Amino acid sequence: MIRVASYNIRKSVGLDRKRRPERIVEILNEINADVVALQEVDRRSGLRETTIPREMIERETDLKVVEIATRPDSIGWHGNAMLVRKDAEVMVERRHDIPVLEPRGAISTDVYLHGEHLRIVGMHLALMRTFRRQQIRAVTNQIQRLNAQIPTLIMGDLNEWRPGGSLEEFGDDYTIATPGPSFHSSRPVASLDRIILRNDLDLLKGAVHHSDLSRVASDHLPIYADIKVSQRITL
Known about the structure:
alpha+beta; six-stranded mixed sheet; globular; 4 helices; Deoxyribonuclease I, Chain A
């Protein structure tokens, strides 16, 4: 079993309007995931530095940063960052360009973890449905051109309020897991955060993480899923 999680941390600013990255770190420890996709991890202007110090992640969690960033003070790209268990082998990191009206991007990494190869994609999609459709098509087309043997999972804040809508662009090769309402954290009504599994992965469990901290640390609640690889490969 492998646990994956996705969390829009709103630049580590909670509902109390205080930037407290230590809360985010504690929530990550509560979830205890092997792979985490973060959204809105970096500031949007200036040096775009991370709002969670790299040293804090390395010191206080069992996770490490996947080296996606292009700026020295950042841990992400267009706010997207990926954390993996410290004993995981990171084989490759990628930044994916997607159609945008506002600054957006997607990232992916291939990892070897718990005896399995996985490809994990993290993304934060646009507010406008037209662009969301284009962005999903762009990412899935880019993933399709890579080594198709590696079991693939996509997760993030997809900004889609409906069960269908832009999510239809994933097609028949993917299963969309909607663990439950994750936005707004004070009174969750919308399932904006989702985990999408290609058909070479099985979903064992999916849930929204509720805790005293997660209800105030961001305007989103984190989601997670326990998965297993349905078809092993040898690279």
